[in-house]
Amino acid sequence: MYRIAVIPGDGTGPEVVNEGLKVLKAVSNKVGFRYKTKAYDFGGERYLKTGEILPDSAVTELKKFQAIYLGAIGHPDVKPGVLEKGILLKLRFDLDLYINLRPVKLYNSLFCPLKDKKPEDIDFIVVRENTEGLYKGQGEFQNKGLKNEVAIQISHNTKKGVERCIKYAFEYAKKRNKARKLTLCGKTNVLTFAWDLWERTFYEVAKSYPDIITDYAHVDATCMWMVKNPEWFDVIVTDNMFGDIITDLGAMVQGGMGIAAGGNINPGKVSMFEPIGGSAPKYTGKNMINPLAAICALSMLLEHLGEDKAAGLVEEAVIKVVKTKLKTLAAGKMGYTTEEVGDLVVKNL
Ligand code: IPM
Ligand code: MN
Question: CATH topology for 1-97+262-349?
């Protein structure tokens, strides 16, 4: 009996999570596993009503689950940063979800903004470090408000944090067994402290993986290749900030936020899965948003639980829907409502 915590969150989060849960129910019947969900109402509404963001007691409770299924965080009436820091980042840090795994996979060339790129050209995965770097939030103001003000923002990288992330990426490249290639995406030519540590650690760990091809690209060049030659990538490993940036670019080349999913992972421990787009307040309650990103996140959640067969079935059903049904992946233009897209996935399981 799997225990899954559900945090639908803000905006369109609840709508897409509903579709994901519909698919979960269907695939569990098909494959034959049992699960229990418990919903938590953390998000903008609760904060505005009660002032509570995410109490430490909730974090303790969430540790008892095997997975967390998250919709979206972000509310138009709450100052940007409050909920993101108080919920999403707090969960990443407090649950030590040190990997942010983000597949970049094109399912239908029609939805790719790059000319002549096919599904076989765009199929890589980004392993983003998820608990360190600039996201540690260290720094200070000096002479705040004055003409000679200085703002310092520190990228904090530990050997332990870098090493466990790089090891995960090598293991992933091995298990994935596609091109068996791992690219370190960094900025060794300018950020000479952080990327010195990353580069040294990368080649140290590489010694234990002689059958994995290693490669290095600066982050700016990575952006260029992701557009020009995305077929060069298999697995990319990078730090928190660069990973944040390149995976938005990744989401676009795979067809848009409507399909982009990610997992916040602590291997073997409770991990959190989410569509990577935001709460899309503009579309809230309109039954227009694309639930496929949330459904792809569910597939990743199932893989985390060890339900590989169910994960594969869900992904195959999504591919069928994307290939044969939808007009676009964009909200409101799919030719179907949010609920209908969820139903189509269920039907294609
Ligand atoms: C993401 C988001 C978050 C991040 C924000 C909402 C804090 O952009 O999951 O990529 O920067 O990590
Ligand atoms: Mn982001």
Answer: Isopropylmalate Dehydrogenase (3.40.718)
